[in-house]
Amino acid sequence: MPRPLPLILAQAPGRPADDLAGFAADVERRVKLRAPGALVAYPELHLGEGAPGTVADPEDTAEPLDGPRDAALSQLAGDLGIWLVPGSVHERGEDGRVHNTTPVYSPQGKRLTTYRKICPWRPYETTTPGNRFAVVDLDGVGRIGISICYDTWFPEISRHLAWMGAELIVNVVRTPTGDRAQELVLNRANAIANQVFVASVNAAAPSGVGRSLIIDPQGTVRAETPGGGDTTLTDVVDLDEVVNVRRYGTAGLNRVWEQFRPGDPALELPLYGGRIDPATWNPATTHEEPSR
């Protein structure tokens, strides 16, 4: 059975953290006439703009997770009946530290999960790193994972999301620099190596250089924006394609998740102080917890 998921990637310039009314109007404009139940994603720190093209001081814009911003975003998702990934926001943790955090909201107006950026772009970003991966089930559709911008440079993050059962990795980005070209290659590589969809949405000028794209589990670019203007990238992906690619192999050849099998020797990984255990190599299936 197909499992279609409409995607709406908002390649937009950033907004001040307190411009929730403007954000709501922008989401409604982009969603209008689109399929119900779409997943709508905005760039990293979309609600974190200072002067045009600059990120505001995290200390000035950070809110606790259950603050008024969260209530407004929950209501917006519920009012429009969408899965909402509003980019990322500055979150004030219970210990007072500030994180770069992506929340995910359901069409019922509930916050389903949050993800704190594991790899801030050091030394330029000062937020406190997160220490856990985040996947979430979209009821009746499938499971997605979340990464934020520089995370995509670390293959361990995408690999772990796929192992946890993610069929689509939503990568929210704010890249105004020349290395967006490399990020496009890395996103394709992460899709190929893990046989997952990747949707990478970058900010528009002056906050970013754009070049958002949607990649299928074989690494083929399905849709992309050619430049850095304010635009909306749309597609409808079938998450069952992940199942088919893993079953028959990339290009009908490579079944990477069947490489390690029960009875094979464990592979020590001294870099991580861990190992690849063939008994736990296969990824979780949708709506199941990964084996430990």
Name the beta content range: 25-35%
Distance between the termini: 29 Å
- Total helical elements: 6
What coarse outline follows from CA principal-axis ratios? globular
The secondary structure category is: alpha/beta
Count of β-strands: 15
As for the CATH topology, it is Nitrilase/N-carbamoyl-D-aminoacid amidohydrolase
Classify the helix fraction into a percent range: 10-25%
Largest beta sheet: strand ordering: 7-8-9-10-11-12
CATH A-level architecture: 4-Layer Sandwich
What multimeric state do the chains show?
single chain
In CATH, the homologous superfamily goes by the name Carbon-nitrogen hydrolase
* Mean pLDDT metric: 95
pLDDT below 50 for ≥5 consecutive residues: which ranges?
none
Gyration radius, in Å: 18 Å
Main CATH class: Alpha Beta
Element string (H = helix, E = strand): EHEHHEEEEEEHEHEEEEHEE
Care to describe what's here?
Strand 11 (213-215) and strand 12 (221-224) form a beta hairpin. Helix 4 (155-163) packs parallel to helix 5. The chain has helices at residues 20-31, 58-61, 68-80, 155-163, 180-194, 240-248, and strands at 4-11, 39-41, 83-85, 89-92, 98-105, 111-116, 135-138, 142-148, 168-172, 197-201, 213-215, 221-224, 231-238, 267-269, 274-276. It has a single domain (4-262), classed as Carbon-nitrogen hydrolase (Nitrilase/N-carbamoyl-D-aminoacid amidohydrolase), CATH 3.60.110. With 292 residues, it is α/β, with parallel strands linked by helices. The radius of gyration is 18 Å and the shape is globular. The model has no long low-confidence stretch (mean pLDDT 95). Helices cover 21% and strands 25% of the residues. Strands 7-8-9-10-11-12 form a 6-stranded mixed β-sheet, covered by helices on one side. The chain has a 4-stranded mixed β-sheet with strand order 3-2-1-13. It has a 3-stranded antiparallel β-sheet with strand order 4-5-6.
